[in-house]
Amino acid sequence: MTNRRVLIVGASIAGPALAWWLRHHGFTVTVVERASALRPGGYKIDIRGAAIDVVEQMGLKEQLEGLETDMQVMSFVNKAGKRLASVPADLFMGRGEADLEVMRGDLSRILYDATRADVEYIFGDTVVGVDQADGTVTFKNGEPRTFDVVVGADGLHSVVRELTFGAEQEFVNDLGHLVSIGTVPNHLGLDRQELIYSAPGRTLNLYSTGKGHDAKALFLFTAPGLTYDRHDVQAQQRILDEAFRGAGWETDLLLDEIARADDFYFDTVSQVGLKRYGEGRVSLVGDAAYCPSFASGQGTSLALVGAYVLAGELAKADHPEAFAAYERTMRPFVERNLQLGRDNLGRMVSKSAFQSWIGAALMRVLPKLPGKDSMIEKMTKPIHDAARAIDLPQYRTAADDHL
Predict the structure, then answer these.
(1) Distance (Å, rounded) from C-alpha 35 to C-alpha 58?
(2) Mind listing the pLDDT tens digit for each residue in 47-58?
(3) pLDDT tens digits, residue range 270-303?
(4) Cβ proximity of 147 and 32 under 8 Å
(5) Domains in the chain and their CATH numbers?
(6) Residue 136 and residue 144 in contact, taking contact as beta carbons nearer than 8 Å
(7) What are the distances in angstroms from CA 19 to CA 98, 177, 242, 389?
């Protein structure tokens, strides 16, 4: 069983994490990635709860701690740029002492570096077909190859999911919002600071992890039912421009700058809901299987925990039984975090100017209120509960079997 050949499609977070655990269990692993190289950059991401236990078992926690963003302050600003309220960043994001916040690109690089010596990586290619009968996989560019198990770790718009489970619209739930993010010059000189500007139906978030670094601009807005071409970047930039141009503060300048960003990203705020995580010899992990949306702050943690559980179950049993056990273990955890994403999104975009004002006012007075600690604990409890809503199984590894 330990010599089974596994193909993983996707080399962002879930894919290399799964590769690490599968090699730890003695599997032969190949990872194929559509991009021509590892994707650098990206936005800041949280690792919480059970996912902290996973990276600790991988021996990567100390390395990640050295790459923490160390964000200090989050401030609400008005149209004129005046800071209406400022609070510690960890308080606003609901982070506990053990939680980590790093840049997506840093985590991706660490996982790749930890696996590239004994995992085959193929960049610049993708899967176009999987034969369930004998495991033959056809690629867009490379020659066909045979694998015992194929895992889609290829994100919200998973090719593997569409090939195996069906059309994307059957499983992807658009939450009625669009999000865009990109790297922009740090023209305000932010140093581990995050600024939030809110207008009805629109939120603009600007942050930098250090003075002298670039900044990230994140635009979030309501757009129920809006359709667009996922491959037409100019059309996406027009939609973004129409939604925010003239909204106040630094929006017009940041719109001009994000249009020039090499890493411009634009997509729906969506979740993935599957009735099953495995079909035949194919399974899914991370956003491909259970994207909770960025609003949950739990996508990375779900990917890390899912990789750990899927690899552990594959080490215990043949893939039909392993996929079923993986789903049984992950399902309650996934559902809890999907709900968290839906709940959080409603608080991230104000419906009116009054709601924006109330939100800033609450943040301004919260640190001064009597009983603030219990109030903060109540506000952050849903995040911490969702992050810990799984009892991680313990799996024997190939190394254990040689003891």
Answers:
(1) 26
(2) 999 999 999 999
(3) 999 999 999 999 999 999 999 999 999 999 999 9
(4) no
(5) 5-69+95-172+270-346+382-401 (3.50.50.60)
(6) yes
(7) 25, 33, 42, 24
